[in-house]
Structures are given as C-alpha cells and as structure tokens.
Design a protein that fits this description.
This protein has 9 helices and no strands. With 264 residues, the protein is mostly helical. The protein has one domain. It comes from Agromyces fucosus. Keywords: Membrane, Transmembrane, Transmembrane helix. InterPro entries: DUF4239 (IPR025333).
Length: 264
C-alpha cells in the first residue's frame, strides 16, 4: 500500500486520498447525527461544553500537525541541499583536475564522469524505491586512490592539491548525507497519533448540534479537505526521493551537461 502511494501519479493519489478523507468524515457525521439528536436535551449547554473540548483538542492537534509538517519539510530541504552541494562539489573537483598532469587528470575526469552517470542512472532510481545506493561507491574509491597518487612539485601545486582534498572531504560528507536520507521517515508511532487525531477530530465535528444536515456535512467536508491536504503533503514529502514531491537528479544532470560534457 505504501509503495503504491509513492509510485502512483499525484493526479490519482491526491483525489483518492483527500476524497476518501472527506467521504469518511461525512459518513461519521451521518452516522452520529441521530445519536447526537437523541442525547442533546439542552443545545446551549451541549454546544458550550463541546466548544471547550474542540478548542482544546484543536490546539494540540493543530500544533502536532504543524510540527510534523515543518519537521518533514526541513528534512526534505536539508536532503535537497545535500544533493545540490554534492553535485557542485563534483563540478569543482572536475575543474580542479584540469591543473594536474594530463595522465592523472584524464583518469580522474573519466572517473568523475562515470560517477555522475552512476548517480543519475542507478543511485536515484534505487533511492526512489527506498534502497540504499551502492553503484557509485566504485568510482569514489577509484578517485580517492588517484587523488592520493598526486605529487605536488611547487608551492602553488601544493595549495591546489590541499584545496582539492578539502573539496573531496566535503563531497564525501554531502554524499553520505544524501545516501543516509534514503531511509529518512517519520517513526510509525507519529503516524498512529496523527490518524487517531484525525479520527477524533471527525467525531468531534459530528458531535456539533446542527439542525441543517447539509450545512453540517459542508462544515465537516471543508475541514476534512484541509486536514487531508496537510496529511497528504506530509506523507508525500516524508520520503525525500519517492513520491510526487521528491528530489531528482536534476542538479547532477546540469553539472554533467554544463561542466563535464562541455569540457570533453
């Protein structure tokens, strides 16, 4: 079910998710209206007591949804930033190799070219399926071995070599952050709390004593649309590399086209 959600087009999942959310909320209203009508003897007292309950619950549930949504988006944004930085650092390393002797520089540039293709063609598809990527590790090891064979002859060459080493270290950190984000997701207990909160919210809305049935359903439906949209966006961005809102290899493709392919 989870895989289907992330693999299916948003044109299908969004209407199904939000529409199902609204439908269930309206069915709860329809089911509980007769019960509420039988139980309510003093509408004013009932509404006053229910207002306190809904107000208190709404504060806690709203804060929970907001904190979870912000946390998920921050994880998504930090992962996207790590991918952009990694792609930029590969471009910087590629430029740095142009100052090395031809035989060493050519081999390094070939490794970087192969690395970018491995990331774009293998790593990102694997990450979109929730699998830790490993295809590009070979090129990383090759480049590191080649980098440590460089012998700087002048002070200027030494400075450039040290800068290349620093860039390589930053590249490794960004790469590690991108790979680690593959398994990034909210703990299941958070989702349990969110779904329980959504169910309680629907029940509390159904408890409101409204004489006009259509108006009651409209109120419940509108609130369900908004809550459903918030939960949908949160769930879709919970896995940074999967779903309609996901991180793709666009930054790597631009570096490959504008820096690597342009210099070959």
């Amino acid at each position: 079910m989870v895989d289907w959600f992330y693999e299916t087009s948003i044109l299908i999942t969004l209407p199904l998710f939000v529409g199902g959310f609204v439908l269930i909320s309206c069915l709860i209203v329809v089911a509980l209206r007769p019960v509420v009508n039988r139980l309510v003897t003093d509408p004013k007292e009932w509404d006053r007591a229910l207002a306190h309950v809904i107000g208190t619950f709404g504060v806690f549930f709203g804060i929970l949804l907001a904190l979870v949504a912000v946390s998920v988006y921050e994880n998504f944004a930090s992962t996207r930033q790590a991918a952009i930085e990694e792609a930029g650092q590969v471009g910087a390393l590629y430029r740095a190799t142009t100052g090395l002797p031809d035989d060493q520089g050519d081999r390094m540039r070939q490794v970087l070219d192969a690395y970018m293709h491995a990331v774009i063609e293998v790593d990102f598809p694997d990450q979109s399926e929730g699998e830790l990527p490993s295809a590009s590790e070979v090129q990383v090891d090759q480049f590191e071995r080649l980098l440590h064979t460089v012998e700087a002859e002048t002070r200027g060459d030494q400075a450039e070599f040290e800068q290349a080493l620093a860039t390589f270290d930053d590249f490794i950190e960004s790469r590690r952050a991108r790979i680690d984000a593959t398994a990034l997701a909210l703990p299941p207990l958070f989702w349990v709390v969110i779904w329980v909160g959504a169910a309680v919210n629907a029940v509390l809305i159904a408890f409101i004593h409204v004489s006009n049935r259509r108006l009651h359903l409209l109120m419940a439906g509108l609130l369900a649309v908004f809550i459903g949209l918030v939960i949908f966006v949160t769930a879709d961005t919970d896995h940074p590399f999967a779903g309609a809102i996901s991180i793709g290899p666009g930054a790597y493709e631009r570096v490959l086209e504008q820096i690597i392919d342009a210099r070959q």
